[in-house]
User: Fold this.
Amino acid sequence: MREELLWVEKYRPKKIADVIGNEEAKAAFVEWLKNKCHTKKAILLYGPPGVGKTTLVNSAGNEFGFRVIEMNASDTRSEKAINAVAGPATSFIALDTFSTESKGNILFMDEVDGIAGNEDRGGVSAIVRIVEESRIPVIMAANDPDLQKLRPLKKVAALVRFHQVRIPLIIAMLQKICQKEHIRTEFEALEHIAENSRGDVRSAINDLQSLAETSKTLTLQDTVVLSARNKDISMDETLRSYFSAESLLEAAMMLSRSSVDYDDLLMAVGDNLPLRYTDPADLAEAYDFVSQADMYRGRIGVENWHLLKYFFNSLSEAAAVSPESYKPFTFISPPIRVITLFWTKGKRAMLEAICSKIGKKCHVSRATAKQDVIPFLKLALANQKTASTVSWLELQPDEVDFLTRMNKL
Amino acid sequence: MVVLNKKSFRLPRVEKEKFILLLRLGLNYNREQGIFCVANYNNIEKLTDTLSSILNVDEVLFAQTCMTCGKDFPCSDCKYQSSCATKNLPFQCVCPQCLREERTSEKPVQSKPF
Assistant:
């Protein structure tokens, strides 16, 4: 049974000193945890996945005698669910702190970037309230702290950034695991696994385990099967590789390695095809393949990932309809949706602000305000019968002006 | 190119706004000794950019501290620098020599008897 344990769990550090890399972040976190008079009651650990955020919290809990109450915020998204779990945990002090060596509880909310940020569901505001009222330290972890919805959290929490773990440190750790598992390895094999992991310790250990499953000897040759983890391949890079691929297989490989959103990818390919084909017939055929890929994307949904290869294959065929009619070009257009979102950012923010005001006054969500109230308001503005409504909704002159102009468009 | 030690380095006199910016980006200033040190690593990339503009150089590099032997060493000695996302930033690492030594001291592990 023990043999079946995942090595990431089996070799999960129990002490802070055993967590590799990010020494500076570890020091900052320990300093915060030791300091009883926190300047901020919560701390937000952020950084790429697999660099030791969760491990550090658990090992610190072990070492300092705290009981870690863990809550994955991406599972518990709404205000109600968060309050149900975190509310009692933070408002009472555990009885065993008086009788045992336990120093009490700490609340750990992992993946807070997965919570619902909008006012309608109130996930973020619930966490802010919990932090403000909490009697125990609150620790949060996130991959991307720059999300708009996490801004309120950043105001109430001390921030500690985690970076990718450096390759020499990963190699040293893999060596230790190999020694404990009695695996004979070539140094170059470990080097390749570590480089391939791109600073993600968890994936490096998983790769090592998967490679060492069949044999107790690991050579560089064995690691060739590991495909590169292209975490940082941007949309532009993906499209360039995709359009310059020399075979269908290569194009499909490029697409499968990329980490960009598949819906965005589909749109970006569609937007770039007219730049690629000179012959309208070829272009039409290419669009047929894109629509086929779109159909597969729809069928994949969120669970039928076994259909993903058909999505990639159809999309690859769109790039290889007729290599003879390829137009040599260097410009790769970003998805038009992205450009549109960029240009309309200010307008959307204004509309959101108006909907927010309507929502507060009419006790409806912003979405309902946008869908049900705004059309009537625009109509009323067009008929200039809105003076009392405008003052009741506390709309500013620029917001009224925006709605009026929106009406004319 | 200038190589700095994250624990103590001196800078030319800067304007008040620049000084405040440096402190906001994570530097600490020891007024008695007139030296700076890196205290917060959250904005380390912005900090190096600001330092390079103050020192009027293309690039500011930080010496690395080896976790095994404690010596300072530059990233240029490391063979993984092309694939390192945090090269030249003041984080702890393992120096090439220690890594080599670990490699040579590695003994073939005897497989378990059946």
User: Anything to note?
Assistant: Chain A touches chain B at residues 21-25, 28, 159-161, 163-164, 166-169, 171-172, 175, 178-179, 182-184, 187, 195, 198-199, 216 (CB under 8 Å). Chain A has a mean pLDDT of 81.
